[in-house]
Amino acid sequence: MKKLNVLLFTLSISTIIYAVDVEDNVKDYKKSDNWVSFAITDNHFGNTLATRAATEDLRTNSTLAFTYPTNNKCKIAPAELIIKLSEPLSESSTHEVYGNLQFDNLPVERIEATVQNEAGSNFTFLTINYKNMDEKVKKSKNMSINFKGYGVINFSMNGAQNAIQDAKRICNNFSY
């Protein structure tokens, strides 16, 4: 799972590239303003495992991603915040963290996430516990998120609606 997330992070930071197949395990790559959507396939048969809509904050090397697994009838998985670190992690850990989330100029909301760290990885993964986050993202222009120790991360929502709709549409074509 961590290798898949690292691949997805790498692909999401390459949003400047306009390509159909960026990597062997990615297809249907499409750029929508500041967002991208794509399908993730398996190595052996090219079956679509999930689709994803993602954006990034270049300033903090962070990616916000929404994943729709095909083996779960394309029900959205919790949003992920993937943060590239300056050096590899020394140990693995999993813990809960609280933070703040703000869409546009709306009131700040308190949120919770599960942090997953793997020794030797240059990435930390935060699974955000926030129901219907994708729907709120589609209706907003900006999102700011802050978890202690990671600083304020800002994402533009320009293109979010199209990228999320594309990811859902592609997933529904391959849902098991």
Short description:
This protein is an alpha+beta fold. The protein has helices spanning 2-12, 133-138, 160-174, and strands at residues 26-32, 35-41, 48-57, 62-69, 80-84, 93-103, 109-117, 123-129, 142-147, 151-156.
Salient structural properties:
176 residues; signal; ten-stranded antiparallel beta sheet; globular
Structure description:
- By secondary structure, the protein is an alpha+beta fold.
- It has a single domain, classed as Immunoglobulin-like (Sandwich), CATH 2.60.40.1880.
- 18% of the residues lie in helices and 43% in strands.
- It has 3 helices and 10 strands; from the N terminus they run αββββββββαββα.
- A 10-stranded antiparallel beta sheet has the order 1-2-3-4-5-8-7-6-9-10.
- The longest helix has 15 residues.
- It is globular.
- 34% of the residues are buried.
- Keywords: Signal.
Ordered list of secondary-structure elements with their pairings:
Blueprint: H1 2-12, E1 26-32, E2 35-41, E3 48-57, E4 62-69, E5 80-84, E6 93-103, E7 109-117, E8 123-129, H2 133-138, E9 142-147, E10 151-156, H3 160-174
Antiparallel strand pairs: 1-2, 2-3, 3-4, 4-5, 5-8, 6-7, 6-9, 7-8, 9-10
Signal peptide: 1-19
Keywords: Signal
- CATH homologous superfamily classification: Invasion associated locus B (IalB) protein
Q: What's the tally of helices? A: 3
Oligomeric grouping of the chains: single chain
Secondary structure: number of strands: 10
The radius of gyration computed from the alpha-carbon positions, rounded to a whole number of angstroms, is 15 Å
- SSE order in H/E notation? HEEEEEEEEHEEH
Major sheet description = 10 strands, antiparallel
Per the principal axes of the C-alpha atoms, what is the gross shape?
globular
Helix content: 10-25%
Strand arrangement within the widest β-sheet reads 1-2-3-4-5-8-7-6-9-10
CATH domain fold name: Immunoglobulin-like
Number of domains: 1
